[in-house]
Amino acid sequence: MKINRFANYALAAAIPVFLLLQQTTIxxxxxxxxxxxxxxxxxxxxxxFKPSEITVKKGVPVMLExxxxxxxxxxxxxxxxxxADIKAGVVEKLRFVPDKAGTFTFFCDIFCGDGHEDMSGxxxxxx
Amino acid sequence: xxxxxxxxxxxxLAGMGVAVFVTGTPLSASGSRLEETExxxxxxxxxTHWGFNGPSINPDSQGxxxxxxxxxxxxxxxxxFIVFTxxxxxTTDDRKIRRDRMAEFxxxxxxxxVKTVRFMxxxxxxxxxxxxxxxxxxxxxxxxxxxxxxxxxxxxxxxxPMAAVGEQQLRWLxxxxxxxxxxxxxxxxxxxxxxxxxxxxxxxxxxxxxVIDALMPHPNVTVLYGHIHQEHHHMTGHIAHHAxxxxxxxxxxxxxxxxxxxxxxxxxxPYKGLGFRDVEAEVDxxxxxxxxxxxxxxx
Lengths: 127, 299
Fold this sequence. Notes:
The structure holds two protein chains of two kinds. Chain A has one helix and nine strands. Chain A has a four-stranded mixed beta sheet. A three-stranded mixed beta sheet of chain A has the order 3-9-8. Chain A is of the alpha/beta class. The relative contact order of chain A is 0.19. Residues 1-31 of chain A have low confidence and may be disordered. Chain B has a single domain, classed as Purple Acid Phosphatase, chain A, domain 2 (4-Layer Sandwich), CATH 3.60.21. Chain B has helices spanning 2-13, 64-73, 95-109, 123-126, 132-138, 167-178, 208-215; strands at residues 17-20, 39-45, 82-85, 117-120, 143-147, 150-154, 185-189, 221-225, 232-236, 239-243, 275-282, 287-294. In chain B, the strands form two sheets. In chain B, strands 1-12-11-2-3-4 form a six-stranded mixed beta sheet, covered by helices on one side. In chain B, a hairpin with a 2-residue loop joins strand 9 (232-236) and strand 10. Chain B is globular. Residues 1-6 and 8-36 of chain B have low confidence and may be disordered.
């Protein structure tokens, strides 16, 4: 029983560390702009996207990996005609090529609660 | 008609007139020629968000709706009916609090002198439980009613959290419109804009274009809605869309700022941007004159 309890504690301690590392990786990948396909994982939870600011390079394909940490959310990026349902535990992938530079808003388009209207982020496309 | 003109003159003296109009020939809602020309007026209140708490946005969140009720009751001439175009309550994940807020809201508006009140849901009322609690308190999410030659259609574009009317309701709408003569007087009441006002701000209905397509064969259609917390007027072809102010907080003009945000309370201009409206229907001309009333100065 002690071993099991220890294992539970270790697991409980490891999960936040893993999530932190994962988050750091996501933010790094968003900042480092390469000429290869840019893979960016976006985590949705009430009422934020993480990361909420993403920078990509114009003309370089982007793969967005969307996942919800809690309830059903939506992802909509009208300027690039992108939208997806984001459900807990399911990775939804959207691939596109940003063909114009600028700063564009993405947001949750499925009403998810009291902070829904603030649940948005920005995609910055640089030359 | 004489009374209506008298009332309009009084309002003009008060300097509060804004007119919107469409013309036509005298017809009843079912399309038959009216035996007698009728005119009437009703009041639209919207986005009351009962249960909202944000002192920097509205320090009188417990009092604004009550002031609006008092202001409507103080109108010299009472409207024939009153409509609430959604977001009656502020959303919550808690089922009990949601119902408590709806019960409180219902109690407050029961103080209106006019007892014919038509409700509709906003996403804050109905999106998290697909309208379950709302229907317990206020009835159907979509329905029609007729008043003195005008056919009113209440559309639900909120109980689906994806902000859609949906195929089933669309078929219901098409069947209802099929019974109407083309030039029947039709007023659509709904919460979200049916056109893409600002999709990036969630100011749209996903299948709103299909609704507008269904309405388009009818030359006398007007849409009244809420959701965007400000007065706004827009035409899609010959169909006029008029958004109403909120009774809790104001929002910026569409696209005027990078990120949509509630406009903070201004102590030097309390209740600025909040209010309600009356709509005078001149049925013979298919004309609707809208007048906006601020909170606390409606008399």
